[in-house]
Structures are given as C-alpha cells and as structure tokens.
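Researcher: Next sequence.
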Amino acid sequence: MSQVREYVERRELLTNLVLRELRSRYKRSTLGWTWSLLNPLSSVLIYWAVFGVFLEVDPPVGDPSGQDNFVLFLLCALIPWNFFSNGVMQSIESLVVNAGLIRKVYFPRELLVASTVGGLLVTFLIELGVVIVILLAAGNMVLPWIPVILVLVALQTVMVVGIGLLLSAANVYFRDVRHFITLIMPVLFYSTPIVYPITTVPETWRIAGRSIPLRDIYGFNPLVRLVTAYRDAMYSLRMPAWDTLAYIAVWAIGLLLLGQWVFNRLDRRLAEEV
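Model: Next structure:
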C-alpha cells in the first residue's frame, strides 16, 4: 500500500516521463507521428501479400457481423500484437537507457517502465482509432463494442507493464535478457493466431499412438485468448466469452504482481548495477 501511495504522489512525474517518451520518439523526423500509422500498415501489406494472396489463407466469416475480409481480420490482431511486442522490447531497455537519471536522484524506478508502456499506449490508441474508422467504412458497426475494446486494452496494458517490470530489472543484471526475448518474439508471433485463423490448428494430434488435444493446449497461451477477444469484439461484433476475459485478467494481474515482486527484489542494487 505504501508503494501504491508513492505512485499516486508521483503521478505528475509519470505524466512528464510519458510526454518525454512521446516527444523523443519521432524527434527530427520529417513525417513525425505519421510513422506510427505507416509502420503497422506496411506490416499489414506484407502479411496480406504473403498469407492472403500467395498462401490464400481464408479468414473465417465473422459471426454475426458476416465480415469476410483478410485485411480486417489481420488488422484486428496485428495492432494489439504490435503493442505487446513493442511494449515488451522497449521496456526491457528502459532502465539501462535511463541509467544516468537513476544514478542522480531517487524516484520509483518502476515509473520508467510505466512511462515507456504509456507512450506506446498512446500510439496504440491512435492506431485502434484508425482501425475502427476502417471497420466502420467496411460496414462493421463496431462503436457499441468500444467499451469492451477499452477493457481489453486496459488488461493488455497491465500485462505488458508486469512483463516489463520483470524483464527490465533482470536485464540490468543479465544483459542477455534482451537477446533472449528477441529470439522468443517470433515464436510467440507464429504461435498466436494473428496471420491465420485458430481453426487452422488441429483439434487433436497423434503422437506415438496417443491423441493429444492440441488446440486446447494451444489455448493456454494468454495471447491466443487476447487476440481472440479482440477479434470477437472488432471483427465478429460479439461479446468475448466471459471465461476468456477472466483468463486474460488472471494472467494480467498475476504478471503484474510477479513483475512487481521481482522488481522489488532487484531494486536494492539497481543504481549500482545499471
């Protein structure tokens, strides 16, 4: 509770750190914030060409929206994934990059991780706004589902902050953490139904004569549940299953508590090691 009280008292500092992140992101860039839209759009074009045109992956028809468009199917998952991926990768370096600030003055170092994720959250919300406009133009009346989308955004933000706290503190002591996570990210990407529908994953898989419920095991990945929930609300225009929302919430809160606990354990010698 004392930590929570300290965070509340330092909320102005957190705001200033987030603003610093936003100002520095596209500093001296000609296109500026336009890059926040061009980068995901270029990714969508690449994945659409590879999976939608060359491999001819058919998106499932949205129920009850009736939507049948691979680009929209891809956008509803790729934009949340980009927030997750960028949030994790950038928060890992948030303490090392701000080493000089950490050595000079005391403040809750967790705010550096939170400000990094906060800056990306602003970009994520802008991108989601663009996706919603595209969905509306395509005939998907997604406006009634915006509250559900915001709940998912909040849960995902908590999840990313928790992972960021855990990995950023570990990265100060073990600089191989970033390189390890760089290897893990493509595995997470392709093990999550972003560029393909979840129905592509076989329900069962036979190994040594035994049948394994592959899709059920696959569903234990919280990112699978998260992407499915975003698609339910934005692409299919239906309420995500309550057990899916509960599963995401448990993972988000659990990762936040674990990240905070690890951060507290490693924070004692942080200024010396950074």
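Model: The chain has one domain: 34-273. The chain has a mean pLDDT of 86.
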